[in-house]
Design goal:
Strand order of the largest sheet: 1-16-3-12-13
Order of helices and strands: HHHEEEEEEHEEEEEEEEEEHHEEHHHH
Number of strands: 18
Distance between the termini: 46 Å
Number of domains: 3
Structural class: alpha+beta
Strand content: 15-25%
Number of helices: 10
Helix content: 40-55%
Length: about 450
């Protein structure tokens, strides 16, 4: 129910304004609590950003945490039109002479010619054998050549069907079947003798399924397809064109550009992290004095500046490979010095980053540190976030209590001022009456 107050009718005072100002004074603790709650929420958001930057650093470190990833080998072919090659995990430096004797082929069948794609192919069962599995395709009466093509594409895995029209006025439409994968593993068989009542397709083999044939350093090799990944360890060969008797040279060598790019990505992620740390450490930063910020920054900085212990090589500091600490806790990157270190002592540079027995490596240390700090049960961020959320809940509860108290205070003030107005009004009425009696 809405209360109607006639403010100051008797006293002439703006009692509504007085009540509002008194209530506003009582709200000061609430404003302080709201500011604190906003500060806690800003800290949560800033911690989330800090965590994201740590995870970005961890991701960059993960690209350098194994010898295969650090090696970053590059494979090239002397004839990209006939053979393309890609180096992957497990590849090793070397040179290989390859001759592509023949490509893998997929089986292809062609039917007799039909006058149109709407020709009736009959009804019954069309049998396919694909990869040793029987597929019975039930053909309903009235099925056209075009409809049969669609049924094969929809229901028979491993075979694709098309209709080719050579433009002849009669008998110019042919149903073509193809294995979807080249090589004998993708071979199939088809039997249309189960169709009756129409013009059943009679297929003729146009091309048989065959595996690829090549020689690698004089060794004869049979490959199941034209993309070969199990012949040379770590290499994928894409066979594009046969060239019997012609040697294609494949070279696999270290790619310093890719290695440098991965290390630079790590340095950039570190600098981005510490730019944020420096911003947040300022008096206006949301995480100024925050123990999680300080602990995370100190731990990561120590990994980058401290010497590794137990490494087999003579390189134990990032500074030895051109990564040094500069101003504002940033790293400075000397790419020329890093490139020279790769040439002079590649294994030493690799072991500075890569974990081996007795040698944790920088990449492992970074990933482990970030895992520990971001652990969902015991990590720094879990502890800090829980503490801040508890403070926010406490502030909300205090604000709610203050709001109830202030509402009660407001109602009390309104009742008191209303009573005062009534009393003054009564006194004024009595005074008027007395004046009328004595001064007649």
């Amino acid at each position: 129910m809405t209360t109607v107050a006639f403010s100051g009718l008797a006293t002439g005072l703006d009692t509504a304004s007085i009540v509002s100002q008194l209530v506003e004074l009582r709200r000061r603790p609430i404003y302080r609590l709201e500011n604190r709650r906003t500060d806690f929420q800003n800290q949560l958001a800033a911690l989330s950003t800090l965590k994201e930057k740590l995870l970005t650093l961890q991701k960059a470190a993960a690209r350098l945490d194994s010898a295969a990833e650090f090696n970053s080998l590059q494979a090239t072919s002397s004839d990209e039109d006939r053979l393309r090659v890609t180096a992957g995990t497990g590849a090793a430096s070397g040179v290989y002479d390859i001759v592509i004797e023949s490509l893998a082929t997929a089986r292809r069948d062609m039917s007799q010619g039909y006058d149109s794609a709407a020709a009736d192919v009959g009804a019954g069962t069309l049998l396919f054998v694909v990869g040793g599995t029987n597929v019975n395709l039930t053909v309903e009466p009235g099925t056209t050549l075009s409809a049969l093509k669609d049924r094969i594409n929809d229901e028979v895995d491993g075979i694709s069907a098309t209709i080719v029209n050579d433009g002849s006025p009669t008998g110019g439409h042919y149903l073509i079947l193809r294995g979807t994968e080249p090589g004998t593993a993708g071979n199939y068989a088809v039997n249309a003798t189960g169709l009756t009542g129409g013009q059943a397709p009679v297929f003729t083999v146009q091309q048989s399924a065959a595996d690829a044939s090549l020689t690698v350093d004089g060794l004869s090799v049979t490959a199941a397809g034209n993309q070969v990944s199990d012949v040379i360890s770590g290499l994928t060969l894409d066979l594009l064109q046969a060239a019997p008797g012609e040697t294609i040279r494949v070279s696999v060598e270290r790619d310093p550009t890719e290695i440098t790019g991965k290390v630079k990505e790590l340095v950039d992620a570190y600098n981005d992290l510490f730019m944020f740390v420096q911003e947040q450490s300022q008096p206006e930063g949301d995480l100024r004095g925050n123990p999680t910020l300080r602990s995370a920054a100190d731990r990561i900085e120590n990994i980058f500046t401290a010497a590794t212990v137990g490494g087999p090589g003579g390189i134990s500091l990032l500074a030895q490979v051109g990564i040094t600490r500069g101003d504002a806790r940033q790293l400075e990157w000397d790419e020329d010095k890093f490139a020279a270190a790769l040439v002079d002592d590649f294994s030493g540079v690799r072991d500075l980053f890569v974990e081996k027995v007795g040698n944790p490596g920088k990449s492992y240390l970074i990933q482990t540190a970030v895992d520990n700090m971001t652990d969902s049960v015991t990590g720094l961020f879990k502890i800090s976030n829980d503490a801040l959320n508890n403070k926010i809940r406490s502030a909300d509860q205090s604000i709610e209590r203050y709001e109830r108290s202030i509402e009660s205070y407001r109602l009390t003030l309104e009742r008191q001022f209303a009573a005062m107005e009534m009393m003054v009004a009564q006194l004024q009425a009595q005074g008027s009456y007395l004046s009328s009696v004595f001064y007649r």
